Amino acid sequence: MGEDELEKKLNKIFFGKEEQREKDYDILKTVEEVFDTFTLRSLFDLSRKVGLRKISGVISAGKEARVYRGVDNSGRELAIKIYLTFSAEFKKGIYKYIEGDVRFERVKITGTRRLMSIWARKEYSNLKKMFSAGVRVPEPLAQKDNIVVMEFIGKNGVRAPLLKEIGDALRNPAEIYSEIQENIRKMVCSARLVHADLSEYNIMVFDDSPVIIDVSQSVLLSHPNAEEFLRKDVSNIDRFFNRTYGIEVHGDTLLEELMQCLRKSEGSIP
Predict the structure, then answer these.
(1) Structural domain count of the chain
(2) Catalytic positions, please?
(3) Residue 107: other Cβ atoms inside 10 A
(4) Is the pLDDT at 28 greater than 60, yes or no?
(5) DSSP secondary structure string, 133-196?
(6) pTM score of the predicted model
(7) Are 150 and 127 in contact (CB under 8 A)?
(8) Neighbours of 111 (CB within 10 A)
(9) How many CA atoms lie within 13 A of 58 on its CB side?
(10) Within a domain: residue 182?
């Protein structure tokens, strides 16, 4: 089923007349080819919670998740991230971000669906902590099961480009670099989190400012691998800006400050 057809069917199910929804089993059946009943129910509950009026096309599609554009009753654009499937390789890789996180140490993972729900809840929790600390991330709005609803980064249905996509066309690389460093500082020293996968592939540029995305894997400073992840994050940003724009980078100086925040948090519980 094509994305346009899926969009029409979803909108008919969720936003059509009540009596039509009750009768439209054929539509529900075809939509379930993409979304199972579990996901549809969660999406319906969230649509009521955030006042969702319309679901539009796919903003981005990866192996594990798709992000759809939505519009709420006030006309505000939303991003609806739905985790759909986890490959065996992906499942194996993400345990290192969950194990050692005190927020989830008592959570039992009983299957793929449960793992997707935990991963979505982890992303929502990380977004809330970062947003509250002043880190420029999409504002988190709601989460249920394998779905996260957040602020849409873009305009008129067009998402903002990734830093990687802009490449050497970036107008103010030195300023963007400094803003990213400041966001990392707030993330570590205020939100007490490490992104753990920061690079040019998960930073958008909107209104000439960076917006950090994809934070499901982000870990607390108390995580046993927090320092390793942090050093890699800072190194990735330095490498990209130095190689792409030839600007002077100073990640080592930033790391000295961040390591002080990291050490202060050792043994603490959020």
Answers:
(1) 1
(2) 197, 214
(3) 15
(4) no
(5) TT---PPEEEEETTEEEEE--EETTEEPPBHHHHGGG-S-HHHHHHHHHHHHHHHHHTS-EE-S
(6) 0.85
(7) yes
(8) 7
(9) 12
(10) yes
Core vs surface per residue 25-60: b (16+ CB within 10 A) or e: eebeeebeebbeeebbebbbebbeebebbbbbeebe
SS3 for 83? strand
Q: Which tokens in the block code for residue 46?
A: 């969230």
Does residue 227 fall inside a structural domain? yes
- Lowest mean pLDDT, pick from 22-26, 109-113, 161-165, 182-186: 22-26
> Where do we find the tokens 């709601």?
142
Is 155 inside a domain boundary?
A: no
Domain with residue 115: its CATH number is 1.10.510.10
Contact 36, 43 (CB under 8 A): no
Dist. CA 121–CA 224, nearest whole Å: 21
DSSP 247: -
Q: Are 152 and 45 in contact (CB under 8 A)?
A: no
Q: What is the mean pLDDT of residues 219-248?
A: 96
- Please state, in angstroms and rounded to a whole number, the distance separating the CA atoms of residues 153 and 150: 9
Beta pairing partners, 65: 83
Instruction: Tell which residue, 92, 63, 60, has the closest CA to residue 79.
Output: 60
